[in-house]
Write a structure and sequence with these properties.
five-stranded parallel beta sheet, 5 strands, 6 helices, alpha/beta, 15% strand
């Protein structure tokens, strides 16, 4: 199960991503919004709480630029959120950083590209190995601040 959420700027992109990836067997827990104005930090927390609790495997967040969502998401302990706008970043944030939330900008990407990036993110496994040490260092910073 994938948690997904957006603010009012990302509604159409969220719907498109859900539609495209549902065809490939992905299941989503849609945390909203469905169009009503809302604050992106509230939506980020809803999605991130589901990821941290283990109820959802990963999360996708969409706002106007993706920047606000990524900033808010990374304040939640246990979240490694990455703003992605290209396939290389979507792939390598999973391979090397074990990111568990991907953020995108509805005003900076087309819906076709956003769906492709989401699929890359969701189907790429963490490589582990030497990268695990670095992820552990990130976790140490998080636990000690």
């Amino acid at each position: 199960m994938i948690a997904i959420g957006c603010d009012h700027a990302g509604v159409e992109m969220k719907k498109a991503v859900i539609a495209a990836l549902s065809e490939n067997g992905f299941e989503f827990k849609d945390m909203g919004t469905d169009g009503e104005p809302c604050d992106y930090p509230v939506m980020a927390k809803k999605v991130c709480d589901l990821v941290v609790s283990g109820e959802c495997e990963k999360g996708i967040l969409i706002c106007g630029t993706g920047i606000g969502m990524s900033m808010a998401a990374n304040k939640v302990k246990g979240i490694r959120a990455a703003l992605c706008a290209d396939s290389f970043s979507a792939k390598y944030t999973r391979l090397h950083n074990d990111a568990n939330v991907m953020c995108m900008g509805a005003r900076t990407l087309g819906v076709g590209l956003a769906s492709e990036l989401a699929e890359i993110f969701l189907t790429t496994d963490f490589e582990g190995g030497r990268h695990q040490r670095r992820v552990d260092l990130i976790t140490d910073i998080e636990n000690n601040n």
